[in-house]
Automatic annotation (TrEMBL):
Start and end residues of each Molybdopterin cofactor biosynthesis C (MoaC) domain: 15-148
Gene source species: Alteromonas sediminis
UniProt enzyme class: lyase
Name of the encoding gene: moaC
Pathway of action: Cofactor biosynthesis; molybdopterin biosynthesis
Protein name: cyclic pyranopterin monophosphate synthase
Function according to Swiss-Prot or TrEMBL: Catalyzes the conversion of (8S)-3',8-cyclo-7,8-dihydroguanosine 5'-triphosphate to cyclic pyranopterin monophosphate (cPMP).
Amino acid sequence: MQGFSHLDEQGKAAMVDVSDKAVTARRAVATGRIHMHVDTLRAVKEQNLKKGDVLAVARIAGIQGAKKCSDLIPLCHPLALSKVDIQFRFEDSAIVVTCECKLKGQTGVEMEALTGVNVALLTIYDMCKALDKSMHFEGVTLLEKTGGRGDG
């Protein structure tokens, strides 16, 4: 089946062979946001939750999520990431999470960046759910991908 790199000639799921691809510097940046009540946002900002520092825990969780991407998504290659950076930005009623992943390798890191964002968002949700049942995610997307043939 042409056009689907994760299928073999018989249409069965297969891991893409990247052994002939050049080792290049690769980078991906993904983002997403979690909407919440203003009171919940204030509690996160002021580190006033019984579960602790929400953003510190979410940062570590996002980094760990990016590192474990191939354990979660069956056909992803396990990658030796050289950098995972999780950043947070407050909006009026949301927290924006951004994850940057880098490596020198034979395949891209966009799935790792997207996984890092999602795990950080899920961690924020988990730590705040007792306070706010109305939280929801929005806009999880890949912002940038560089390196390799599909640069852009």
